[in-house]
Design a protein that fits this description.
Layout (H helix, E strand, L loop, with lengths): L7 H15 L7 H25 L20 H9 L5 H9 L21 H13 L18
Length: 149
């Protein structure tokens, strides 16, 4: 059992705020690549908060490979096409069936050189991450100076 509790809504806001801060200078590459990664994590957390709010619950630990709560994009989208249910299932399907939503985002980017992460992708991921805030994430993103706290 992890020593960390889970708060998907706050995690989504925190990652979006950090990504926005790192992405403030659009011409740079190194921080932009990190920002791009964090935009994807923010979108994942927001989608998982929507799953939770919809009534979906994590599967038992022995089923984690099949559990969308433990999947990353793009696998998360694939899993949700077949497993989304509850009062916000339509919202989840909208994101999971949109082939452009978070296109080309993948956790493998954390091992890639920054030059491999294209500016156009970062901008698209930023825009997509801002589109998917769950109900409990509607509070405005804090100013970048407040991230450190």
């Amino acid at each position: 059992m992890s020593k960390y509790s889970i708060d998907l809504a706050k995690s989504a806001r925190r990652h979006l705020a950090a990504a926005t801060y790192l992405d403030k200078e659009e011409g740079q590459t190194i921080h932009g690549a990190i920002a791009g990664y964090l935009f994807g994590i923010a979108a994942e957390c927001a989608m998982k908060e929507i799953m939770r709010d919809s009534g979906m619950r994590p599967l038992p630990p022995e089923q984690r490979r099949e559990d969308p709560f433990y999947a990353h994009l793009p696998q998360l989208k694939t899993m949700l096409r077949n497993s989304a249910h509850g009062r916000r299932a339509g919202e989840l399907r909208k994101w999971s069936e949109d082939n452009n939503f978070m296109r080309d985002w993948d956790t493998d980017m954390r091992y890639a050189p920054a030059r491999d992460v294209e500016r156009a992708d970062i901008e698209r991921w930023r825009d997509h991450a801002k589109l998917v805030p769950p109900t409990s994430c509607k509070a405005p993103v804090r100013k970048a100076s407040a991230i450190a706290g």
